Amino acid sequence: MKMKIHTEPLFDILVAGAGLAGIRAAVSCAMKGMRVLLATPSRLCSGSSFYPMMDTIHCLCTTGPDDREAFMKDIKDCSWSMNDPWMSRYYVEHIEECLKHMAETGIRCHKLPERKLACFGHTERDLYYWNDWDRLREEVRNVLDRLERITVAEHRELVQLLTAQDRINGAILLGPDGLEALSVKAVILASGGMGNLYLHSLNTADISGSTHVIALKAGARLINLEFNQFIPGFLSPAYKTVFREGSLRYCTGLLGPDGHDILRQLLPNQDACGECLLLREPHGPFTTADASKYFDIALMKSALKNIESRGGAMDQSIGCIIRYSPDILNDSRGYVRDYISWLLREHDIHIERDPISIAPFFHAANGGI
Q1: CA–CA separation, 319 vs 300, rounded Å?
Q2: Distance separating alpha carbons of residues 47 and 21, to the nearest angstrom
Q3: What local confidence, expressed as pLDDT, does residue 54 receive?
Q4: Which uninterrupted H or E stretch holds 362?
Q5: What pLDDT sits at residue 366?
Q6: Interior CA angle at 331 toward 325 and 337, to 5°?
Q7: Which of 15, 232, 242, 350 is the most buried (most CB within 10 A)?
Q8: Residues of the chain with pLDDT under 70
Q9: Which residue in 352, 356, 328 sits closest to 254, CA to CA?
Q10: So what's the pLDDT on residue 257?
Q11: Would strands 228-236 and 56-61 be described as parallel, antiparallel, or unpaired?
């Protein structure tokens, strides 16, 4: 395969990844006068920031400067003091201005009318969201087109970082026309996690961890790769759909392939099913710290039993069937109401009557480069 080689720097900055972080980085650099190449192996507005099998992406925000210390305590308590204090402090001190600046990238955020708890949090806070991926993609493209210093390179995959004297001074990209070697002054890696190393992942196909390998070979360090988040996801009828845990108060059964309620079979007290579901409802990832753990144990036991019954082979279509009461249609919470409407509109799923199969899915990598 031939390689096109550019020895003179055409760009000051290469940004690898066109999700929320990559777009923000590209716009910030361009506004400071730098020439930027924004490269993505898929398309603009990709990855977990614009996940197509989710109705909306949410971001929890402080409720003013007086809330920062309480938010810090929430983060510390929720993480069992394993959080990075600097990153936590940066988040709580800058999240309000960051949400305001998102409009500069073409992404308009909206605030839910009601406040919400963060996963494992103690205090309800403002929840902002963005959605409608095709419209957002068009608006982001319009912004980037106006910033003449940004060149968008879709379907360009980072293959290797080039180094000289312990500094990155270029990169090799693979695109529709073959390999291309670029000389750049700096590289920003905003390529997401490694979800597609797992059988079931709530990530798009380009989130494969390949950039982790490329960064490691170039001399970067990988940290905290064991800190990964798993949450329930749909096996059917719409594979890889994100499960909205706020629906759990209306769950009437978690059924295995044999039709038995596997959650009730696991509970020390079968009458505590409602309590378990209410404890599980406020958070996406699981915890073993309270009785909500039985919900996730039921999902995992079902998945493992499925493998054992097939001699080690996994049938991707079989998980736990979750059933709902029709009362869920009367829920007034925005993040539940909008989710139900989206399932019906986009996937023709009637949540109160259609059998929905769920299983544990990889969702987020909390470590990285």
Answers
A1: 9
A2: 10
A3: 94
A4: strand 356-365
A5: 86
A6: 110
A7: 15
A8: 1-2, 7-8, 306-317
A9: 356
A10: 80
A11: unpaired
